[in-house]
Amino acid sequence: MVTVGILATLKAKPGKEDELAAFLRGALPLAEGEPETTAWFALKIDDGVYGIFDAFPTADGRQAHLDGPIASALLAKADDLLREPPEIRPVDVLAAKLSE
User: Fold this and answer.
1) CA neighbours within 13 Å on the CB side: how many for 48?
2) What angle do the packed helices 59-66 and 69-81 form, to 10 degrees?
3) Fewer Cβ in 10 A, N or C end of the chain?
4) pLDDT along the chain (100 residues), means of 10
């Protein structure tokens, strides 16, 4: 069962939308390698606005993700891809349905 998550909003610099989308698609294998990441979604919210939602069974799993390779890679590319720092919000999961 998931109990916590992260909701992040990313705003691409003009002309960097496709590159940010490709970065997010390319991060999927990294998320798949994180045992505590129960669910991970990369989203296009609007033109130039993207998001990540992920869910974890524990706050420790969430913190491991924040300390992991996706966050590191995003922060390394943030100045090139993003027009402002990402908005990263920890959230509590009230209810969830997960299935294969």
Assistant:
1) 9
2) 50
3) C
4) 97 98 96 95 98 97 95 94 97 93
